[in-house]
Amino acid sequence: RGGVAEREVPFAKPGSLTRVYAVASGKGGVGKSSVTANLAASMAAQGLSVGVVDADIYGFSIPRMLGVEHRPTQVDDMIMPPTSHDVRVISIGMFVPGNQPVVWRGPMLHRALQQFLADVFWGDLDVLLLDLPPGTGDIAISVAQLVPGAEILVVTTPQQAAAEVAERAGSIALQTHQRLAGVIENMSWLELPDGSREEIFGSGGGREVAESLSRSIGADVPLLGQIPLDTRLRIGADQGMPVVLGEPDSPAAVALNGIAKGL
Ligand code: ADP
């Protein structure tokens, strides 16, 4: 640390009005970043002041999904986050040269997260979403230390194997004494042209995770919603236009907007 005093994390101050959600998953590829980006865009469209910290060291896909075109700038000793679709975004990928893979160690990641929370000029945020790396690693502990009031959102697919690891990711809240805001099931089904649903990844994972976490913490952990598979969601992500804004009538967007309103 070189003796330099760390700035206080504004979201950790008692009386902070910013709701902080840490979006977690057991494994990669379940749509955690897609959910984060769309919830952020949806809440910003509702008129809330929204920020996203992309702390997914293995993925850092948030800037692309939200169509962020600018880099952060520095004003005095604060970092100004670029904005897209009215969402302020900071990503670990913005500080990594080229497309280089980086070997992150726990303390480095903790330090990066501390800086993203304290040295970025967020202004008055209603909501801050943190896109965590998959798994139950050090970063969840860092979040708990840096923002004790952060609530955890668990993303899973309906698949049994995915649900089991998601449950482990969620149960970290037991140790860190954080609130579990709920479970979001993604890739729940594919709507076929005849209107029927094909459950490509099986069914029940989201409900199972919610029920099992409720049992272990002894409080209700709701299943906040089920998001179907939807080509438009993937295309929107690739084009930097979140499906909740670009195709608001698509089944995935309707589900995501519903979840965002309920948070
Ligand atoms: P994670 O952050 O969990 O690794 P991503 O959000 O990067 O997952 O999603 C993985 C891939 O699946 C991406 O290509 C994304 O566009 C796609 N995807 C995620 N959710 C859906 C969905 N409901 N329908 C269609 N494609 C999806």
Structure description:
The chain has 263 residues and is α/β, with parallel strands linked by helices. It has one domain (17-262): P-loop containing nucleotide triphosphate hydrolases (Rossmann fold, 3-Layer(aba) Sandwich). Helix content is 36%, strand content 22%. It contains 9 helices and 11 strands. The strands form 2 sheets. Strands 1, 2, 5, 6, 7, 8, 9, 10 and 11 form a 9-stranded mixed beta sheet that branches. A hairpin with a 2-residue loop joins strand 3 (73-75) and strand 4 (78-80). Helix 1 (32-45) packs across helix 9, helix 3 runs parallel beside helix 4 and helix 5 (160-176) packs parallel to helix 6 (205-217). The radius of gyration is 18 Å and the shape is globular. The structure holds adenosine-5'-diphosphate. Residues 25, 28-34, 59, 61, 186-187, 227, 229-230, 233-234, 237, 252 line the site of adenosine-5'-diphosphate. In the N-terminal section; belongs to the MIP18 family. GO terms for molecular function: 4 iron, 4 sulfur cluster binding; ATP binding; ATP hydrolysis activity; ATP-dependent FeS chaperone activity; metal ion binding. This is Iron-sulfur cluster carrier protein.
Number of domains: 1
Bound molecules: adenosine-5'-diphosphate
Number of strands: 11
Sketch the major β-sheet: 9 strands, mixed
- Return the structural class: alpha/beta
Going by CATH, the homologous superfamily would be P-loop containing nucleotide triphosphate hydrolases
Radius of gyration: 18 Å
CATH class division: Alpha Beta
Low-confidence stretches: none
Beta-strand content bin:
15-25%
Instruction: Please report the distance between the alpha carbons of the first and last residues.
Output: 37 Å
Shape: globular
Number of helices: 9
Please provide the ordered H/E string of secondary-structure elements: EHEHEEEEHEHEHEEHEHHH
Helix content: 25-40%
Would you identify the CATH architecture? 3-Layer(aba) Sandwich
Give the oligomer, counting copies of the same chain as homo and different chains as hetero: single chain
The average pLDDT is: 93
The fold-level CATH name is Rossmann fold
